[in-house]
Amino acid sequence: MKQIVAIYPGSFDPVTNGHLDLIHRGCKLFDRLIVAIAYNPDKGDPLFSIEERMEMLRAMTADLENVTVDAFEGLLMTYCIQKNANAVLRGIRAVSDYEFELQMALMNRKIEPRVETVFMMPAEKYSYLSSKIVRDIASFGGPLTGLVPELVEERLRRKFAQKQAAITEIPTK
Ligand code: PNS
Is 24 in the active site? Predict the structure, then answer.
């Protein structure tokens, strides 16, 4: 029987509870799910390095036996073919996500018609959640409970404390 291998690509900077909700849903549907961290130059300098993001994602998915975590550079469709994947998983939170996701899915289909994009919706309670909002809240020391796992919250606090320390260390003339 044909195995369905899906890639769940994204920036995951950092992984949120919304991403994890989608991973849990996806791994029930597909034989294998590869969570693939992409370098996305459109989003500017990331907060966490690819290695840091991989470590957090691996820790959060360690109990899911058909889920692996990887990273890639370049075209998603090239990566899908390298991995023998036949599906791409993307989350749609609200109508506002749809236009961009549709454009990406149709362009990916044009590049590689053998790979199908599958959209899933995270739980409603995560429909307003994004990595960007999480980074913003964390940068001001705001509450992150329920938005990210404890490990990610701890890494965010540490990252912004390091940034703050680096600013205060700049010698004044
Ligand atoms: O989490 P994000 O940043 O919304 O994910 C976007 C991502 C990484 C999935 C998208 O930018 C992507 O697929 N990048 C790889 C390069 C590529 O294939 N671009 C053409 C897409 S039509």
Answer: no
